[in-house]
Amino acid sequence: KRMRIVASGLATAGLVMAALAVGAPAAWAAVQDGEAGEAAAPAEPAPVHVLVRAERLIVRPGEVRENTSVLITDGRIVAIGPELAAPEGATVVEGPVVCAGFIDPWSALGMEEASRVDRGFSAATRAADGWNPYADEHLREEALRAGVTTIHLQGGSTAQLGGLGALVRIDPSLGEDALVLSDACLSATVGLSADGGFWGGVRAVDPFDRMQQIDRIFQNIATGQAYAESWAKYEKEIVEWEKAIAEKEAELEKDFKKAKKDREKDIEKAEEKDKEFKEKRYKEDRKPRRPKVDADKAVLARVASGEIPLVVEAHRASEIRGLLDALEAYKRVRLVIAGGTEALNQAERLAERGVTVIVWPALRGPSGNDEYEGHDLALAGELAEQGVRVLIGSGGREPAATRDLPLLAAGCVGNGLDRDAAFSALTIDAARALDVADRLGSVELGKDGELIVLTGEPLASATRVQYVISAGRVVVTPED
After folding, report:
1. Do residues 459 and 409 touch, judged by C-beta distance below 8 A?
2. Were both Cys, which of 52, 53, 84, 328 would link to 70 (CB 3.0–4.6 Å)?
3. What kind of fold does domain 102-226+296-439 have according to CATH?
4. How far is CA 399 from CA 60, 119, 437, in A?
5. Each residue's pLDDT tens digit, 181-200
6. CA–CA dist 62, 396 (Å, integer)
7. Phi, psi of 181 (to 5 degrees)
8. CATH class of 46-100+441-480
């Protein structure tokens, strides 16, 4: 304690001498007020500004503005206009065409291999827990240079229930801050060929087993629905019970004096008759029983209510038909089909029910997986012609495939898909399907700063990516 006092005295003396030496009355006043020893408040971090000037700004598919600038501050779009001034310290980027960054709705980039193929997942298992934000850095950089800024990841890709999908940014410098959503959807699979085991190769799933898989998916959803109903019933009953208890307490308090006198009389009578006095017991309504918390059922309840989508990888026409049949009993469930090799056979029903299909338009040679036998690069265009909303993904198998997403989309265009529809599939439609259209997929006020600057029209063969802005920072330049 003595050492602290001495040190404090020396420090004060030093300040006094300095104040006298330079004639600083303010410093002397600070010493007198005891303020000189206080640390200065830390300065607020300066905002990070990026100003993007575009000859053509594609706000969303079908909406284009000429000679328009976009100002991004601390990761959010705060201004859009023709003559925006660059704030002090802003990074300024210019280019011919600017649009929203591409989204891969079916990727494996950054997913740990063990988590990706794990068959032991349950509904509440999170892909985010098997995601490594530091893995495959060179593949992430290549994907960014292709214009892909955000991806959807799924663990347990061969599990019947694959748990909760994650939506992440792929910029390797963001680390764990790259996570956008940890509960983007619930995934499931139907009819995927299994490992052949000792004999090698693959083993097709029996048709009856495939139908049982569909039944189990919707039985699980029914369990989740019942779970939600039990909680809704409990919450209603507990409110009514608490109200009844409060009313009873108020009534007892009101009649307390009378009840006290009656009790005293009863005690006197009991003593006169030399009998034991027995207190009156008031019957209280039993408190409603709280349901047991179940994480898996809670996720399934969210699917049943339509809060999060259900993404099912299914390829054969019979599987897709079975899913649509089962869906009739669950009007709120938002189904997304991943793969959909034979989905064209059910296109009318898919369009009518509003089911989105994520196609994987990769070139595939002969394989032992019979679910891919009808694979056709024209599928995306043919489904779109029938009114089905189509997304384009890299297949969720190979981490390297995400960098090829624009090429896959261009391949769809070459096989009949309208270019605007392909662009929409990589931007706003993908954002809508994954419930992030309020943040991603278009260039609008308040949305995240996820933009790409191109030399020409998106998905054109001669177009190159010049700049990529992710999380409001320039992460790719022409020099990279």
Report:
1. yes
2. 52
3. TIM Barrel (3.20.20)
4. 28, 19, 25
5. 999 999 999 988 765 444 44
6. 29
7. -140, 135
8. mainly beta
